[in-house]
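Progress report, Aim 2. The chain analyzed during this reporting quarter is listed below.
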Amino acid sequence: MAEKVNPIELQKALKGADYPADRKSLASLAESNGADRKVVEKIQSLGQKKFSGPDQVEKAVAQEQ
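Predicted structure tokens for the chain:
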């Protein structure tokens, strides 16, 4: 079973994101923000390609856990 991503870690990883954004740019931003590897990998693995805001990213991550 995959490790769950902490919502607070996810919020920190997405800090400064400009929306709409694709998962590639969000994963890159998360790396720049010093996010844990599991957070970056989770963002990269999301089925959805574009996100209109952080709530949409959080919902997608929660559905895949």
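The chain has four helices and two strands. The radius of gyration is 10 Å. These observations will guide the mutagenesis work planned for the next reporting period.
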